Amino acid sequence: MLKERFKPEKSGTRRWLVAIAAAGLCTVSMSADRAGFSAKVVVELLDGIEFAYKLRLLDDFAFTDTSGKVWLARQGSILDGESVPRELYALGGLPYPFEYRKAAVVHDYFCRVRTEPWHQVHRMFHHASLVEGVSETQAKALYAVVYAGGWRWEPNGSSCFRRHHRRLPGQ
Q1: In whole angstroms, what is the distance from residue 17 CA to residue 29 CA?
Q2: What are the sequence ranges of the domains in the chain?
Q3: In terms of Cα–Cα distance, which of 27, 58, 61 is closest to 43?
Q4: Which residues make Cβ contacts (< 8 Å) with residue 32, sequence separation at least 6?
Q5: In what order do the strands lie in the sheet with 70-73?
Q6: Cα–Cα distance list, 33 to 6, 75, 99 (Å)
Q7: Helix/strand/coil (H, E, C) string of 121-161?
Q8: Quick one: which of 38, 43, 46, 69 could link to 51 by a disulfide (CB 3.0–4.6 Å)?
Q9: How large is the angle between the packed helices 136-149 and 118-132, nearest 10 degrees?
């Protein structure tokens, strides 16, 4: 009788745990579905020798990552694609630049404005490359290149920034 008394609770508990696990899996898959780009990249090629290979972003463009964070590259920004170190391309295994063009636009923007920590920007680039269709192996190689040779900075307001970039007397 004692065994029968606890048996329904045990199976009810098991069902409850399965339901929680299923809800968690649904949440993960739904958040992965949210990842993507906002629209087309619209740019203007800037003329003039001082603007060699530079583009102006004509419309806002964004990448939304799997956590729901929106990485918004603002209209009017100047981009040049230099946030991905070209000298490391000789290592091989990297995708062609047109394969991760949208990811590069958002990455280049955040490398210039430096409002987010560098390691988060490089990680976003990895995820954006995958969403754009770059293979897992190529996205990892691309991430390794930007992690090893890409830009690094301390965001404004960090303790390192305050310590090394204090205002001089009289400013």
Answers
A1: 18
A2: 2-34, 37-149
A3: 58
A4: 66
A5: 36-37, 61-64, 70-73
A6: 41, 26, 20
A7: HHHHHHHHHHHHCCCHHHHHHHHHHHHHHCCCCCCCCCHHH
A8: 46
A9: 160
Q: Average per-residue pLDDT in the chain? A: 78
> Which residue shows structure tokens 């290979």?
53
pLDDT classification of 136: cutoffs 50, 70, 90: very high
The DSSP call for residue 67 is: T
Q: In a 3-state reduction of DSSP, which class is residue 9?
A: helix
How many Cα atoms sit within 13 Å of 67 on the Cβ side? 6
Residue 105 near residue 79, CB atoms below 8 Å: yes
Instruction: Give the pTM.
Output: 0.70
Handedness of CA 112, 116, 119, 121 (dihedral sign): negative
Instruction: Decide which of 96 and 31 is more confident.
Output: 96
The reported pLDDT for the residue numbered 126 is 97
Mean pLDDT of 7-19: 45
Strand ordering across the sheet containing 55-57: 43-45, 55-57, 78-79
CB atoms within 10 A of CB 155: 14
Burial class (CB in 10 A: 0-12, 13-18, 19+), 45: exposed
